[in-house]
Amino acid sequence: MRLTKLRLHDYRNYEDLQITLKNGIHILSGKNAQGKTNVLEAILYLSTTRSHRTACDEDLIKEGKEAFFIKAEIEKTNRKEELQISVNERGKNLFMYKNPVSKVSDFIGEFNAVMFCPDDMMLFNASPRVRRRFVDMELSKLSKTYVNTLFVAQKLLKERNRYLKQEHVNKEYLDIVTMQLIEATMVVMKQRHHFLKQLLTKCAQFYKRLSNDGTQIEVIYESCVPYTEDEQLLRDRLTEKYEKSRERDLAMRVTSVGIHKEDFIFQINGREVATYASQGQKRSILLALKVGMIYMIEDIIHDYPVLLLDDVFSELDMDRRKELLHSLPNEVQIFISTTDIEEFKHLDIHQPITIWSIASGVMKQG
Ligand SMILES: Nc1ncnc2c1ncn2[C@@H]1O[C@H](COP(=O)(O)OP(=O)(O)OP(=O)(O)O)[C@@H](O)[C@H]1O
Protein backbone atom coordinates (compact mmCIF):
# COMPACT_ATOMS: atom_id res chain seq x y z
CA MET A 1 0.00 0.00 0.00
CA ARG A 2 1.11 3.55 -0.45
CA LEU A 3 0.16 6.99 0.66
CA THR A 4 -0.88 9.09 -2.33
CA LYS A 5 -2.16 12.22 -0.59
CA LEU A 6 -1.59 13.64 2.85
CA ARG A 7 -3.15 16.64 4.54
CA LEU A 8 -2.20 17.90 8.00
CA HIS A 9 -4.45 20.61 9.36
CA ASP A 10 -3.34 22.37 12.57
CA TYR A 11 -1.17 19.36 13.37
CA ARG A 12 1.97 20.16 15.46
CA ASN A 13 3.79 22.98 13.58
CA TYR A 14 1.77 22.51 10.36
CA GLU A 15 -1.07 24.90 9.59
CA ASP A 16 -2.39 23.24 6.46
CA LEU A 17 0.01 20.92 4.67
CA GLN A 18 -1.38 19.30 1.51
CA ILE A 19 0.91 17.07 -0.50
CA THR A 20 0.65 14.47 -3.25
CA LEU A 21 3.02 11.53 -2.96
CA LYS A 22 4.50 9.21 -5.55
CA ASN A 23 5.75 5.70 -4.87
CA GLY A 24 9.41 5.04 -4.08
CA ILE A 25 11.60 6.80 -1.55
CA HIS A 26 10.73 10.17 -0.02
CA ILE A 27 13.59 12.01 1.60
CA LEU A 28 12.48 14.64 4.10
CA SER A 29 15.40 16.97 4.57
CA GLY A 30 15.74 19.98 6.80
CA LYS A 31 17.49 21.43 9.82
CA ASN A 32 16.60 20.36 13.33
CA ALA A 33 13.16 21.16 14.77
CA GLN A 34 11.55 22.08 11.43
CA GLY A 35 8.82 19.41 11.29
CA LYS A 36 10.33 16.29 9.69
CA THR A 37 9.41 13.94 12.55
CA ASN A 38 5.99 15.59 12.80
CA VAL A 39 5.16 14.38 9.27
CA LEU A 40 6.38 10.83 10.00
CA GLU A 41 4.51 10.84 13.31
CA ALA A 42 1.30 11.84 11.50
CA ILE A 43 1.73 9.00 8.99
CA LEU A 44 2.27 6.49 11.80
CA TYR A 45 -0.72 7.96 13.65
CA LEU A 46 -2.91 7.01 10.68
CA SER A 47 -1.73 3.45 11.12
CA THR A 48 -1.98 3.08 14.91
CA THR A 49 -4.27 6.00 15.92
CA ARG A 50 -1.61 6.83 18.52
CA SER A 51 1.48 9.00 18.56
CA HIS A 52 4.76 7.26 19.26
CA ARG A 53 5.94 10.36 21.14
CA THR A 54 3.05 11.27 23.40
CA ALA A 55 0.11 9.54 25.01
CA CYS A 56 -1.79 12.83 25.02
CA ASP A 57 -3.50 13.63 21.69
CA GLU A 58 -3.89 17.27 22.68
CA ASP A 59 -0.09 17.70 22.39
CA LEU A 60 -0.56 17.18 18.66
CA ILE A 61 -2.90 20.14 18.22
CA LYS A 62 -1.12 23.17 16.84
CA GLU A 63 -0.37 25.69 19.55
CA GLY A 64 -3.21 28.20 19.87
CA LYS A 65 -5.68 25.97 17.97
CA GLU A 66 -8.47 23.77 19.27
CA ALA A 67 -8.47 20.81 16.92
CA PHE A 68 -6.47 19.06 14.22
CA PHE A 69 -7.19 16.59 11.48
CA ILE A 70 -5.07 14.28 9.37
CA LYS A 71 -6.50 13.23 6.03
CA ALA A 72 -4.97 10.70 3.68
CA GLU A 73 -5.61 8.91 0.45
CA ILE A 74 -4.25 5.39 0.40
CA GLU A 75 -3.68 3.22 -2.63
CA LYS A 76 -3.90 -0.52 -2.06
CA THR A 77 -3.38 -3.40 -4.49
CA ASN A 78 -7.00 -3.37 -5.57
CA ARG A 79 -8.54 -0.09 -4.39
CA LYS A 80 -8.18 3.45 -3.12
CA GLU A 81 -9.22 4.46 0.34
CA GLU A 82 -9.70 7.73 2.18
CA LEU A 83 -8.92 7.95 5.87
CA GLN A 84 -9.29 10.79 8.33
CA ILE A 85 -8.58 11.28 12.03
CA SER A 86 -9.86 14.41 13.77
CA VAL A 87 -9.02 15.36 17.33
CA ASN A 88 -10.47 18.10 19.51
CA GLU A 89 -10.81 18.57 23.28
CA ARG A 90 -13.77 16.17 23.33
CA GLY A 91 -11.78 13.32 21.81
CA LYS A 92 -10.86 11.52 18.63
CA ASN A 93 -13.03 10.75 15.60
CA LEU A 94 -12.10 8.25 12.91
CA PHE A 95 -13.46 8.25 9.35
CA MET A 96 -13.16 5.88 6.43
CA TYR A 97 -14.52 7.07 3.06
CA LYS A 98 -15.95 10.04 5.03
CA ASN A 99 -18.03 7.66 7.20
CA PRO A 100 -17.46 7.63 10.97
CA VAL A 101 -15.80 4.51 12.37
CA SER A 102 -16.74 3.85 15.98
CA LYS A 103 -14.44 0.89 16.73
CA VAL A 104 -10.70 1.55 16.72
CA SER A 105 -10.11 -2.07 15.68
CA ASP A 106 -12.11 -1.43 12.47
CA PHE A 107 -9.76 1.43 11.60
CA ILE A 108 -6.37 -0.03 12.61
CA GLY A 109 -4.94 -2.13 9.80
CA GLU A 110 -6.62 -0.15 7.01
CA PHE A 111 -3.31 1.62 6.55
CA ASN A 112 -0.08 0.10 7.81
CA ALA A 113 3.18 1.80 8.59
CA VAL A 114 6.32 0.54 10.32
CA MET A 115 8.57 3.11 11.95
CA PHE A 116 12.18 2.94 13.07
CA CYS A 117 13.22 5.93 15.19
CA PRO A 118 15.99 6.71 17.71
CA ASP A 119 13.74 5.97 20.73
CA ASP A 120 13.47 2.36 19.51
CA MET A 121 17.06 1.93 20.68
CA MET A 122 15.67 1.91 24.24
CA LEU A 123 13.65 -1.21 23.54
CA PHE A 124 16.17 -3.64 25.02
CA ASN A 125 17.23 -1.72 28.12
CA ALA A 126 13.97 0.01 29.04
CA SER A 127 11.34 -1.36 31.43
CA PRO A 128 9.12 -4.31 30.41
CA ARG A 129 6.30 -1.81 29.80
CA VAL A 130 8.20 -0.48 26.75
CA ARG A 131 8.62 -3.98 25.29
CA ARG A 132 4.94 -4.77 25.95
CA ARG A 133 4.02 -1.54 24.16
CA PHE A 134 6.21 -2.56 21.20
CA VAL A 135 4.53 -5.97 20.97
CA ASP A 136 1.04 -4.50 21.48
CA MET A 137 1.54 -1.79 18.84
CA GLU A 138 3.03 -4.11 16.21
CA LEU A 139 0.67 -7.00 16.84
CA SER A 140 -2.33 -4.65 16.70
CA LYS A 141 -1.44 -3.93 13.08
CA LEU A 142 -1.85 -7.61 12.28
CA SER A 143 -4.79 -8.77 14.31
CA LYS A 144 -8.15 -7.15 15.04
CA THR A 145 -8.81 -10.00 17.50
CA TYR A 146 -5.74 -8.86 19.41
CA VAL A 147 -6.88 -5.21 19.51
CA ASN A 148 -10.34 -6.23 20.75
CA THR A 149 -9.20 -8.86 23.25
CA LEU A 150 -6.45 -6.67 24.68
CA PHE A 151 -9.04 -3.94 25.19
CA VAL A 152 -11.35 -6.38 27.00
CA ALA A 153 -8.48 -7.77 29.13
CA GLN A 154 -7.40 -4.26 30.14
CA LYS A 155 -10.98 -3.34 31.05
CA LEU A 156 -11.36 -6.48 33.16
CA LEU A 157 -8.04 -5.82 34.84
CA LYS A 158 -9.16 -2.30 35.75
CA GLU A 159 -12.44 -3.69 37.04
CA ARG A 160 -10.63 -6.31 39.14
CA ASN A 161 -8.29 -3.68 40.58
CA ARG A 162 -11.17 -1.33 41.30
CA TYR A 163 -12.97 -4.15 43.06
CA LEU A 164 -9.91 -5.18 45.08
CA LYS A 165 -9.78 -1.65 46.48
CA GLN A 166 -13.28 -1.88 47.95
CA GLU A 167 -13.84 -2.16 51.69
CA HIS A 168 -15.84 -5.44 51.46
CA VAL A 169 -14.88 -7.72 48.61
CA ASN A 170 -17.47 -10.23 47.45
CA LYS A 171 -15.24 -13.23 46.65
CA GLU A 172 -17.77 -14.74 44.24
CA TYR A 173 -17.83 -11.61 42.12
CA LEU A 174 -14.03 -11.47 42.25
CA ASP A 175 -13.93 -15.05 40.95
CA ILE A 176 -16.28 -14.21 38.06
CA VAL A 177 -14.15 -11.24 36.97
CA THR A 178 -11.00 -13.38 37.35
CA MET A 179 -12.49 -16.15 35.19
CA GLN A 180 -13.37 -13.66 32.45
CA LEU A 181 -9.89 -12.16 32.72
CA ILE A 182 -8.34 -15.63 32.34
CA GLU A 183 -10.29 -16.24 29.11
CA ALA A 184 -9.08 -12.94 27.59
CA THR A 185 -5.55 -13.59 28.90
CA MET A 186 -5.43 -16.91 27.06
CA VAL A 187 -6.17 -15.23 23.71
CA VAL A 188 -3.62 -12.48 24.32
CA MET A 189 -0.95 -15.02 25.32
CA LYS A 190 -1.59 -17.18 22.27
CA GLN A 191 -1.32 -14.20 19.94
CA ARG A 192 1.81 -12.86 21.64
CA HIS A 193 3.46 -16.29 21.49
CA HIS A 194 2.79 -16.81 17.76
CA PHE A 195 3.63 -13.22 16.86
CA LEU A 196 7.05 -13.39 18.54
CA LYS A 197 7.84 -16.73 16.93
CA GLN A 198 6.99 -15.51 13.42
CA LEU A 199 8.62 -12.12 13.87
CA LEU A 200 11.85 -13.75 15.04
CA THR A 201 11.94 -16.04 12.01
CA LYS A 202 11.59 -13.06 9.64
CA CYS A 203 14.00 -10.96 11.70
CA ALA A 204 16.66 -13.70 11.64
CA GLN A 205 16.43 -13.93 7.83
CA PHE A 206 17.24 -10.25 7.40
CA TYR A 207 19.81 -10.18 10.23
CA LYS A 208 21.75 -12.87 8.38
CA ARG A 209 22.08 -10.47 5.44
CA LEU A 210 23.41 -7.75 7.72
CA SER A 211 25.93 -9.86 9.57
CA ASN A 212 26.83 -13.16 8.05
CA ASP A 213 28.62 -14.43 11.16
CA GLY A 214 26.16 -17.06 12.38
CA THR A 215 24.79 -14.82 15.13
CA GLN A 216 21.56 -16.20 16.58
CA ILE A 217 18.78 -13.84 17.65
CA GLU A 218 16.16 -15.13 20.03
CA VAL A 219 13.35 -13.78 22.13
CA ILE A 220 12.23 -15.32 25.40
CA TYR A 221 8.56 -14.79 26.15
CA GLU A 222 8.39 -14.35 29.92
CA SER A 223 4.69 -15.09 30.20
CA CYS A 224 2.68 -15.07 33.43
CA VAL A 225 2.49 -18.89 33.28
CA PRO A 226 4.38 -21.20 30.89
CA TYR A 227 2.60 -21.01 27.52
CA THR A 228 1.08 -24.14 26.02
CA GLU A 229 -1.08 -24.77 22.93
CA ASP A 230 -3.28 -27.01 25.11
CA GLU A 231 -6.12 -24.60 25.97
CA GLN A 232 -7.40 -26.48 29.01
CA LEU A 233 -3.93 -26.85 30.43
CA LEU A 234 -3.27 -23.12 29.90
CA ARG A 235 -6.59 -22.29 31.61
CA ASP A 236 -5.67 -24.59 34.53
CA ARG A 237 -2.26 -23.00 34.88
CA LEU A 238 -3.73 -19.50 34.91
CA THR A 239 -6.50 -20.49 37.34
CA GLU A 240 -3.94 -21.95 39.72
CA LYS A 241 -1.73 -18.88 39.40
CA TYR A 242 -4.62 -16.50 40.16
CA GLU A 243 -5.76 -18.69 43.07
CA LYS A 244 -2.29 -18.63 44.55
CA SER A 245 -1.99 -14.86 44.22
CA ARG A 246 -5.53 -14.16 45.48
CA GLU A 247 -4.63 -13.51 49.14
CA ARG A 248 -1.72 -11.30 48.12
CA ASP A 249 -3.93 -9.39 45.64
CA LEU A 250 -6.55 -8.88 48.36
CA ALA A 251 -3.90 -7.63 50.78
CA MET A 252 -2.15 -5.40 48.24
CA ARG A 253 -5.48 -4.40 46.60
CA VAL A 254 -4.05 -4.83 43.14
CA THR A 255 -3.72 -7.64 40.57
CA SER A 256 -0.16 -8.95 40.74
CA VAL A 257 -0.36 -11.55 37.95
CA GLY A 258 -1.23 -11.24 34.28
CA ILE A 259 -0.44 -9.98 30.80
CA HIS A 260 0.31 -6.53 32.26
CA LYS A 261 3.38 -8.03 33.97
CA GLU A 262 4.81 -9.99 31.05
CA ASP A 263 8.16 -9.34 29.40
CA PHE A 264 10.00 -10.24 26.20
CA ILE A 265 13.74 -10.72 26.57
CA PHE A 266 15.79 -10.41 23.40
CA GLN A 267 18.93 -12.51 23.21
CA ILE A 268 21.95 -12.68 20.95
CA ASN A 269 23.81 -15.99 20.97
CA GLY A 270 22.08 -16.89 24.23
CA ARG A 271 22.99 -13.66 26.03
CA GLU A 272 20.75 -10.73 26.82
CA VAL A 273 20.88 -8.05 24.12
CA ALA A 274 20.39 -5.37 26.81
CA THR A 275 23.64 -6.14 28.59
CA TYR A 276 25.71 -7.93 25.94
CA ALA A 277 25.13 -6.43 22.48
CA SER A 278 27.01 -3.40 21.15
CA GLN A 279 25.11 -0.30 20.04
CA GLY A 280 25.72 -1.32 16.42
CA GLN A 281 24.36 -4.82 17.06
CA LYS A 282 21.31 -3.39 18.83
CA ARG A 283 20.66 -1.11 15.86
CA SER A 284 21.01 -4.04 13.44
CA ILE A 285 18.66 -6.23 15.48
CA LEU A 286 16.10 -3.42 15.58
CA LEU A 287 16.43 -2.87 11.86
CA ALA A 288 15.94 -6.60 11.32
CA LEU A 289 12.87 -6.56 13.60
CA LYS A 290 11.38 -3.69 11.59
CA VAL A 291 12.11 -5.36 8.26
CA GLY A 292 10.69 -8.57 9.78
CA MET A 293 7.49 -6.64 10.56
CA ILE A 294 7.27 -5.46 6.94
CA TYR A 295 7.40 -9.06 5.68
CA MET A 296 5.00 -10.30 8.35
CA ILE A 297 2.43 -7.69 7.36
CA GLU A 298 2.89 -8.65 3.70
CA ASP A 299 2.39 -12.33 4.58
CA ILE A 300 -0.89 -11.60 6.30
CA ILE A 301 -2.52 -8.85 4.21
CA HIS A 302 -0.63 -9.43 0.94
CA ASP A 303 0.36 -5.78 0.76
CA TYR A 304 3.49 -4.04 2.02
CA PRO A 305 3.29 -1.39 4.73
CA VAL A 306 4.92 2.01 4.42
CA LEU A 307 8.35 2.26 6.07
CA LEU A 308 9.24 5.34 8.12
CA LEU A 309 12.88 5.92 9.04
CA ASP A 310 13.20 8.84 11.40
CA ASP A 311 16.73 10.09 12.09
CA VAL A 312 18.15 6.56 11.96
CA PHE A 313 19.43 6.31 8.42
CA SER A 314 22.52 8.39 9.21
CA GLU A 315 23.28 6.05 12.12
CA LEU A 316 23.59 3.05 9.81
CA ASP A 317 26.90 2.34 8.12
CA MET A 318 27.07 2.35 4.31
CA ASP A 319 26.73 -1.47 4.02
CA ARG A 320 23.59 -1.52 6.16
CA ARG A 321 22.04 1.42 4.29
CA LYS A 322 22.61 -0.37 0.99
CA GLU A 323 21.41 -3.71 2.34
CA LEU A 324 18.22 -2.12 3.63
CA LEU A 325 17.35 -0.22 0.46
CA HIS A 326 18.39 -3.00 -1.90
CA SER A 327 16.65 -5.81 -0.06
CA LEU A 328 13.21 -4.20 0.13
CA PRO A 329 10.95 -4.64 -2.90
CA ASN A 330 10.23 -1.54 -4.99
CA GLU A 331 6.58 -1.58 -3.86
CA VAL A 332 7.59 -0.48 -0.37
CA GLN A 333 7.09 3.26 -0.07
CA ILE A 334 9.79 4.64 2.22
CA PHE A 335 9.99 7.96 4.07
CA ILE A 336 13.39 8.95 5.45
CA SER A 337 14.10 12.05 7.50
CA THR A 338 17.56 13.56 7.41
CA THR A 339 19.48 16.72 8.15
CA ASP A 340 22.11 15.75 5.59
CA ILE A 341 21.02 15.04 2.04
CA GLU A 342 24.62 14.17 1.14
CA GLU A 343 24.29 10.77 2.81
CA PHE A 344 22.11 9.57 -0.06
CA LYS A 345 24.87 9.97 -2.61
CA HIS A 346 26.76 6.85 -3.66
CA LEU A 347 23.88 4.60 -2.61
CA ASP A 348 22.93 3.49 -6.09
CA ILE A 349 19.23 3.47 -5.25
CA HIS A 350 16.93 1.71 -7.73
CA GLN A 351 13.64 3.14 -6.46
CA PRO A 352 12.37 6.56 -7.65
CA ILE A 353 13.38 9.29 -5.19
CA THR A 354 11.45 12.42 -4.22
CA ILE A 355 13.29 15.01 -2.19
CA TRP A 356 11.36 17.33 0.14
CA SER A 357 12.75 20.25 2.04
CA ILE A 358 11.12 21.16 5.33
CA ALA A 359 11.51 24.48 7.11
CA SER A 360 9.30 25.89 9.89
CA GLY A 361 6.35 23.65 9.15
CA VAL A 362 6.44 24.18 5.39
CA MET A 363 7.18 21.16 3.22
CA LYS A 364 8.18 21.70 -0.41
CA GLN A 365 9.34 19.38 -3.12
CA GLY A 366 12.90 19.84 -4.34
N1 LIG B 1 1.59 21.24 19.19
C1 LIG B 1 2.52 21.95 18.55
N2 LIG B 1 2.22 23.16 18.03
C2 LIG B 1 3.15 23.89 17.36
N3 LIG B 1 4.41 23.49 17.18
C3 LIG B 1 4.76 22.30 17.69
C4 LIG B 1 3.85 21.48 18.39
N4 LIG B 1 4.50 20.35 18.79
C5 LIG B 1 5.76 20.48 18.35
N5 LIG B 1 5.94 21.65 17.69
C6 LIG B 1 7.15 22.15 17.05
O1 LIG B 1 7.57 21.22 16.05
C7 LIG B 1 8.98 21.32 15.91
C8 LIG B 1 9.60 19.95 16.01
O2 LIG B 1 9.36 19.31 14.86
P1 LIG B 1 9.99 17.87 14.60
O3 LIG B 1 10.05 17.07 15.85
O4 LIG B 1 9.24 17.33 13.45
O5 LIG B 1 11.46 18.31 14.21
P2 LIG B 1 12.48 17.62 13.21
O6 LIG B 1 12.50 18.43 11.96
O7 LIG B 1 12.23 16.18 13.08
O8 LIG B 1 13.83 17.89 14.00
P3 LIG B 1 15.08 16.95 14.36
O9 LIG B 1 15.92 16.92 13.12
O10 LIG B 1 15.71 17.74 15.44
O11 LIG B 1 14.57 15.63 14.80
C9 LIG B 1 9.51 22.14 17.05
O12 LIG B 1 9.86 23.41 16.54
C10 LIG B 1 8.33 22.21 18.00
O13 LIG B 1 8.33 23.40 18.72
Automatic annotation (TrEMBL):
GO terms for biological process: DNA replication; DNA synthesis involved in DNA repair; double-strand break repair; SOS response. It holds the Pfam family SMC_N. Keywords: ATP-binding, Cytoplasm, DNA damage, DNA repair, DNA replication, DNA-binding, Nucleotide-binding, SOS response. It is found in: Cytoplasm. GO terms for cellular component: cytoplasm. It comes from the Bacteria. Its main location: cytoplasm. Residues 3-347 form the RecF/RecN/SMC N-terminal domain. Belongs to the RecF family. This is DNA replication and repair protein RecF. The lineage of its organism: Bacteria, Bacillati, Bacillota, Erysipelotrichia, Erysipelotrichales.
